[in-house]
Amino acid sequence: MKKSNYAIITIIVLFASFIIAENNQKFSRKIIEAETQNKYNYYDNPQVCLGCHFEKFDTWKRSQMSRAYTGDFFQAQYQQALVDARRDEKVKGVKADCIGCHSPSAFKAGDLPPSSTGTDKIDSFMQQKGGNKLFADRGVFCDFCHTIEDFSGKTPFNHNYISNAGPGIDPKRGDLEFPWSPYHKNARAELFEDARFCGICHNERNDFGVWVKATETEYQEGPYPAKGIACQGCHMPPLAGKPAKMGPPRAEHKDHWFGGGFETFVRGAAKLTIGINKAALNPQEKIDFIIKVTQLSPGHKFPTGSTEERDLWLHVGVYDKEGNELDHIKIPKNPNDPNDKYFITTNEKVAYPTHSKYGNPIERDSLPEGDRLYHSSFIDSDGNFTYAQWYCAKEIENRLKLLEERIEQYTWNCPEKLSGQTVILRAVLNYRRMPDSYAKFLGIPARPTIEVSRDERILKISR
To answer: Which of 62, 301, 333, 391 is geometrically suited to a Cys-Cys bond with 355, CB 3.0 to 4.6 A?
Structure first.
């Protein structure tokens, strides 16, 4: 009986291996026989992985990793970077460096910038029935990450991964104990449980020596490494069940959604608390109060990532019970801080999409003026604000540090028009992935505003 069972299992495994290999070969036949395309084909198409890892594929294809190259923001900004790389020797490296993380198989294939392959382009996982796409459109995909062996040097940054994928089926690396597959060899690699794995692309130093992204470095400076909590603990939360349809059930394996700066992660990432010592005021009375902003949960500064575009801002106002704003309370300016202007919202046209010598400025924030703004200001070599991280010669920032409490001081002069009313003092902390003015310049849809936190106090105004 046992011999019979073993024979059946052997037949199933061999048949599955044949089907998967044949499926992979079908994709290979669609590739033009040239050196570049052969290098692309060192990596399995994500649809091959779908054969066994359909749940992982399903969450990955909805993630930003799958859109790392095809996303509208990256495509629009990369086209600007290519223009700058052609006309300015100082930033010529951006042509390859962007692709090194946003489409690593294109970088390894030397397809820079990624080019059309004619009529025989590979069918991408995103358009199985809707036409063909570029090889680079895979973005950051299964087989590339799972064939990374290590990173070069002591610090992970600027896509310094070591990936020696070649012809044939390479061993796949991951964090599971005793992995098994009928299709590929497996290897357990502790790097996949290490935050440094993420730092390979989420730390970036530009040609001017400025760390324009340092998410993993920020994490290392906080309390979580000592607690054994890595990036993967939040961005790839544990699941129970089968990571592959032919593998054994696991008490724990990883989700491949890679959530980041979107609603699920942003809401509640910080907390607001209004501190005011009076609940009754007279018209024309002046009152001082504070707002405490507490960074609660992110394992890095907030916001992080492309911090020159990410906006976190504190809006304070007085409202009626219907929600109409009666008075906007602006943050007082600090004349003793020359950098204060970068951290108070303005609609002045002082922001440049590229180096300031190459174009005209746009509105910096596209927000109500006078709100406290938490972000990074990238300054070019002429001393002007730029959204082009490749031209950042200096960073000026006031982002919220890990578990930090920030106290903001406000003053309000109660206007005469509110006499006899009961009003609401409201503070709201909002987040947005980029200013509307920059999205308009790039020709892409504006990004939604997400409310992070709010606090309110009832105030009664005498007659």
So the answer is: 391
- Is the CB of residue 84 less than 8 Å from the CB of residue 91? yes
Return the structure tokens found at 75: 């495509």
Model confidence at 352: pLDDT above 90: yes
Per-residue pLDDT tens digits for 16-29: 444 344 344 333 33
Return d(Cα 173, Cα 190) in angstroms, integer. 9
Show the domains of the chain with their CATH numbers.
Answer: 2-254 (no CATH), 268-461 (2.60.40.10)
**Bridge partners, residue 238, by sequence:** 254
Q: Given 3-state DSSP classes, what are the helix, strand and coil percentages for the chain, each rounded to the nearest 5?
A: 30, 25, 45
Report the pLDDT value the prediction gives residue 321, as an integer from 0 to 100.
94
**Alpha carbon distance 350, 347 (integer Å):** 8
**Going by C-beta distance under 8 Å and a sequence separation of 6 or more, which residues neighbour residue 340?**
333, 334
**Gyration radius of the chain's alpha carbons:** 26
Is the pLDDT assigned to residue 5 strictly greater than 70?
no
Alpha carbon separation from 12 to 4, 51, 55, 76 (Å, rounded): 12, 15, 21, 47
CA distance 270 to 410: 19
Q: For residue 263, count other CB atoms closer than 10 A to its CB.
A: 12
Determine the 3-state secondary structure of 243 from DSSP.
Answer: coil
Q: Which of 1-15, 150-164, 276-290 has the lowest mean pLDDT?
A: 1-15
What pLDDT, in 10s, does the model give residues 158-171? Answer: 999 999 888 888 89
Q: What is the value of pTM for the model shown?
A: 0.88
Gap between the Cα atoms of 13 and 6, Å rounded: 10
